[in-house]
Amino acid sequence: MELLIAIIALCLIFDFINGFHDAANSIATIVSTKVLTPFQAVLWAAFFNFTAFFIAKYIIGEFGIANTVSKTVFEQYITLPVILSGIIAAIIWNLATWWFGIPSSSSHTLIGGFAGAAIMASGFKAIQSIVIIKIAAFIFLAPIIGMIIALLLTIVVMYICKKANPYKAESWFKKLQLVSSALFSVGHGLNDSQKVMGIIAAAMIAAHPMGLGIGIESIEDLPNWVAFSCFTMISFGTMSGGWKIVKTMGSSITKVTPLEGMIAETSGALTLYLTEYLKIPVSTTHTITGAIIGVGATKRLSAVRWGITKNLLVAWILTIPVSALLAAIIYSIESFFV
Length: 338
Prior knowledge:
By secondary structure, the protein is mainly α. Helices cover 78% and strands 0% of the residues. It contains twelve helices and no strands.
């Protein structure tokens, strides 16, 4: 029982860290364009992170991404020590990338850690390779989709507004950025909160045969308090902000205007809603980065700082294998004590 409670607590801590690590995704452009102050922006994003809970439960009617994450590892190979190792590895990698201001994927960190610990415990037969491959493919597909949508939206909006008064147009785009930021924050809450839900569900399923009292047979039996807690923790994390990553996302990739910020956030939100429909956990970081690159590239390719973008891509590619390796090492050490 103590181990299960510790895992749930660590999962919620990870969810909080995810919030402040990924706060930049929702607020970087709205802060860099001075539409909101940093404090106003995190409150705005946190509110819509939490609103996503009610959308998922009462409008969508399911938590499909949580179900996908819980099936990363075959059920018979899921044990509490495996999940414990994975979540510890994910927390370490998330804190390390936050410290260095690298907008890496909290999603892929969590999945990499879960898979790596399972592989160390039972070999490659433990993981559902099709699920892992699908998730890994969206390391590249999510930013590309975001970039393409951003390119198309920028061209359309620029054409519509070509005769507009620049001052009035900028004023309107600043107001619209509030809407686009809210849309993206809802997508962030829908996507990222469910990943932690999936890990908690896996832990509670693993605990069921042990007769601990709070185990479940399947994710459909997941108590409502789990979903509520996950959405609440990511909202509190968002309120804490992740200012190092805000700087990278808001100005280091390309200079962003209110028009471009609105388009980037809208494009990122549309991508997240698409992947929510497909029940594929993706990185909100990758999505918004691709969208920012897309709006920057419509001005000219040189407007995008490709050196920084290349460094981000390397970090993204390394996230799953590094998290998996870290989890494997932690599991090896942990096996002497648990």
